[in-house]
Amino acid sequence: MPLDVPNLHTPGRKLYYAFDVNRAWIVQYAETYWDDYMGTDVEEVEDDAKISSAIYMLITRTGVSNMTFGLGLPNDTSAANGTTTVTDGRVTVPLITVCSSRRGSYLCRPTQAQFDRLEGIVGRRAHWWIDAEPDY
User: Fold this and answer.
1) CA 58 to chain centre
2) How does pLDDT run across 5-51, given as a tens digit for each residue?
3) Is residue 6 part of a domain?
4) Residues 13, 10: Cα–Cα separation, whole Å
5) Against a cut of 0.85, is the pTM above it?
6) What separation in angstroms does the CA of 80 have from each of 76, 92, 93, 97?
7) Which domain holds residue 104?
């Protein structure tokens, strides 16, 4: 998939190419497809486990093997999409990441067809996001 890394100065923070989602959306995704993938009752599972399971389900459906769940810094896009969250006093944006600006991740980015499948499921465009967690 052709993808240019933006020339942003982000000392100590990588960039993610990712979709911003709210936690409710990704939890609902896991609950919707739970019986197709898992052998336990979805009602017995906490939301964090559902989020991890949703990433597994999305990897399986799309082939985007480099996908992770991450947190980005809020911006105008997250404000417009209503995806900015506050957890333990920290303001972040939940992300379904496709790759990062780090060499190993960037070189393992998905094919265009895989990316298009994921974009169709999420229903919005991906953007570059600054990682909420510094590297140090």
Assistant:
1) 10
2) 888 888 889 999 999 999 999 999 999 999 999 888 898 899 999 99
3) no
4) 5
5) yes
6) 6, 14, 12, 19
7) 15-130
Q: Which two tokens stand for residue 116?
A: 């298009």
How many domains does the chain fold into?
1
CB-based contacts of 30, cutoff 8 Å, min separation 6: 42, 50, 51, 53, 54, 57
Q: Which residue has the higher pLDDT, 13 or 134?
A: 13
- Please state, in angstroms and rounded to a whole number, the distance separating the CA atoms of residues 58 and 54: 6
* Type of residue at 103: R
* Residue ranges in 4-133 assigned as alpha helix (H): 23-37, 47-62, 76-81, 103-107, 112-122
Looking at the domain assignment, is residue 35 inside a domain?
yes
In a domain, 135, yes or no: no
Residue 122 within any structural domain of the chain:
yes
Tokens at 26, concatenated: 């990704």
